[in-house]
């Protein structure tokens, strides 16, 4: 089966850097996604990693290590609007399903 | 107009009622999904449709009945639900390609369901 773990909550300060970790177990790995979800809104796509290494997109970067079953999302120069839930999701398994973790609720404080 | 539109945004129903959730995507995608989001739980995949054909039923109870009349519309028919079915129901769409990455999902804002 597939299993994803990420911290439930994190707090960080405006202007700082925060790293949200995600560990996973799956067979037939076909990529890891990060989504952002503000309260009461739809999840929106942030990043996709299928090869090892770091993908940078503006203030957000995502890292993947397939051998360790590990990813992180790095948010730089934090802004108040970054307060949201960050969902880690993995595609894989026999039917290539996209399975989500519980999400990490990030609170950015002044 | 948003890419994926869900109606109603909020629904309260009794356990004996029959109601339906509607999803419409304006992105020209060929796959549509229903997910259930409950507090403190991961998003749970319920159903997947590719080119109007159901390709995934994730052991969902029969009181939830999906319908996909075309690639742009998806319904979730609800009947004799239980209070524990109260949750946010999210619809999503994607463009399935020949690659295994499956495409990114575009979500609607969800239908908040309360079962009394």
For this entry, give a set of tags.
heterodimer; A: 110 residues; mainly beta; six-stranded mixed sheet; five-stranded antiparallel sheet; 11 strands; 0% helix; B: 116 residues; seven-stranded mixed sheet; four-stranded antiparallel sheet; globular
Textual characterization of the structure:
The complex is a heterodimer of chains A (110) and B (116). Chain A has 110 residues and is mostly beta strands. Helix content of chain A is 0%, strand content 58%. Chain A has strands at 3-5, 9-13, 18-25, 32-37, 44-49, 53-57, 60-65, 70-75, 84-92, 97-100, 104-109. In chain A, strands 2, 4, 5, 9, 10 and 11 form a 6-stranded mixed beta sheet that branches. In chain A, β6 (53-57) and β7 (60-65) form a beta hairpin. Chain A is globular, with a radius of gyration of 13 Å. Chain B is an all-beta fold. Chain B contains no helices and 11 strands. Chain B has strands at 4-7, 10-13, 18-25, 31-37, 44-50, 53-57, 64-70, 73-79, 87-94, 106-107, 111-115. The N and C termini of chain B lie far apart (33 Å). The model of chain B has no long low-confidence stretch (mean pLDDT 91).
